[in-house]
Each structure stands twice: as structure tokens, then as C-alpha cells.
Automatic annotation (TrEMBL):
It holds the Pfam family BolA. Signal peptide: none annotated. Belongs to the BolA/IbaG family. This is BolA family transcriptional regulator. InterPro entries: BolA, BolA-like_sf, BolA/IbaG_stress_morph_reg. SUPFAM superfamilies: BolA-like. It comes from the Bacteria.
Amino acid sequence: MAMEAHDIEALIRVSFPTAKITITDLAGDGNHYAAEVIDEAFRGMNRVQQQRAVYAALQGKMDGPSGELHALALTTKAPD
């Protein structure tokens, strides 16, 4: 089952309530998204740590072949 952009944003927003979050549907199929998450919580974290934190926020929606979300390209950073 496909996810909608607002559902992805809502999941991320729980863990990062003040983040600037931009979700883009890359293929128009509800399965391939890009997300940009900019949040102060990322300051001092390396890119892998930042992305793991976002994937954890997705609460298993990308887990395994039956996950609701097939692909998510992440860009994460602390604000400038």
C-alpha cells in the first residue's frame, strides 16, 4: 500500500516537531519519495546518524518487502 506525502511528514514531525520538512513524490506513484529534513537536533551528528534518526521516526514503514514506503531519498542537515 502506498503512502502519501503528508503521512510521511506527520511521522517525521513526531520526532522533529520544529523541523523544516519537504517531501517530494519522485515518481508520482506514492512509493518513491525524497525528503529534506532540516532541524537543530542534527547539529553535531554526522550524516549517517541524522538519517538513522529520520528512518527511526518512520516507525518501520520502510521495513521489509511489504513496507508501506518503498524508497525515500533523504537529505538531512542542521540549519545554517
